[in-house]
């Protein structure tokens, strides 16, 4: 039985990370609302430090380390946003970071890690290679492993995003977040159910990487084998701790295909004039696909990040 972070833990984490993050804006689009038949409030974490909500969890995890733990730096494996977020949090704390990245990780994400002073160790693009390479790095350096999502200090940090949304005083009927490893969805569900138990919390996932959807239906963890989707930030399998939170606090998980994800991404670019990565457009894609479920509601959507390779836009 896990003891989940409490609302007080999440509020303290929010205070703790204040110096290291942006309070991101909530934006609306009349055109998208008309299309969706509901009122959508987009929480723009694409404007967050390192361009993604991951800055929150990494900042919280590093800030909670004591001096002895910080001595040999931190390490993780990540194909993207957590990698950059941890490298930045380490750099701000004046400690080293070792980041295991699959050779297939987007160039823009490798560049970001290097720019924050992270030392990149490349590995084959599969989970086993990521984990064994990481174990080796930790053994060699003595660095502390900060997992990308299946870790309460990280979940607590990600949960602060929804806390900011609730602080705006909007009476959300539903809040939606994308789900990969589940740190953002788990954190969002905790905060939202503590503050407003009747608000629905819905995860959104690409069809080509739908392990959270299948696990949620089966009520047991089904790992993802060979995911295939444009949403490169959501390729990873759902974490155990997050799955426990999701089973208890998430109302539903919806999926959308790549064509629908690209359409939603394009809609955000055209109507809102902001840059979002494919993973970020999944909740809007899922909402538009199932819009009868959301008629006349007030829906909060977390736009999770904006780290897209502009040379490879899908439109």
TrEMBL record:
Task: Name the cofactor(s).
Answer: Ca(2+); Mn(2+); pyridoxal 5'-phosphate; Mg(2+)
Listed CDD domains: Thr-dehyd
Say if the entry is tagged with keyword NAD. Answer: no
Fetch the InterPro entries from UniProt.
Answer: Ser/Thr_deHydtase_PyrdxlP-BS, TrpB-like_PALP, TrpB-like_PALP_sf
- Keywords per UniProt: Magnesium, Pyridoxal phosphate
Q: Which SUPFAM superfamilies match?
A: Tryptophan synthase beta subunit-like PLP-dependent enzymes
Q: Which is one Pfam family of this protein?
A: PALP
Q: What is this protein called?
A: Pyridoxal-phosphate dependent enzyme
Q: Which organism is it from?
A: Belliella kenyensis
């Amino acid at each position: 039985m896990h003891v989940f972070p409490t609302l007080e833990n999440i509020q303290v984490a929010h205070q703790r990370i204040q110096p290291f993050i942006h309070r991101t804006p909530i934006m609306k689009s009349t055109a998208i609302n008309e299309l969706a038949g509901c009122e959508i409030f987009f929480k723009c974490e694409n404007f967050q430090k390192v361009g993604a909500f991951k800055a929150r969890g990494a900042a919280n995890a590093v800030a909670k380390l004591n001096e002895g733990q910080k001595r040999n730096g931190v390490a993780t494996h990540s194909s993207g946003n957590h990698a950059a977020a941890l490298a930045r949090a380490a750099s701000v704390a004046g400690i080293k970071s070792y980041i295991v990245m699959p050779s297939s990780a987007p160039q823009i994400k490798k560049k970001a890690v290097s720019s924050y002073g992270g030392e990149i160790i490349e590995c084959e693009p599969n989970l086993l290679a990521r984990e064994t390479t990481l174990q080796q790095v930790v053994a060699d350096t003595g660095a502390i492993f900060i997992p990308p999502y299946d870790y309460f200090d990280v979940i607590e940090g990600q949960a602060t995003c929804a806390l900011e949304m609730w602080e705006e005083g909007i009476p959300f009927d539903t809040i939606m977040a994308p789900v990969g490893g589940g740190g953002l969805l788990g954190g969002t569900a905790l905060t939202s159910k503590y503050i407003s138990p009747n608000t629905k919390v819905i995860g959104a996932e690409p069809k080509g990487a739908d392990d959270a959807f299948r696990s949620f239906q089966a009520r047991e963890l089904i790992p993802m084998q060979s995911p295939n989707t444009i949403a490169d930030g959501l390729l990873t399998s759902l974490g155990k701790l997050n799955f426990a939170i999701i089973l208890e606090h998430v109302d539903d998980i919806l999926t959308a295909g790549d064509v629908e994800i690209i359409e939603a991404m394009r809609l955000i670019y055209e109507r809102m004039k902001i840059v979002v990565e494919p993973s970020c457009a999944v909740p809007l894609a899922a909402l538009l696909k199932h819009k009868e479920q959301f008629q006349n509601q007030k829906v909060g959507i977390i736009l999770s990040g904006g780290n897209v390779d502009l040379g490879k836009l899908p439109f």
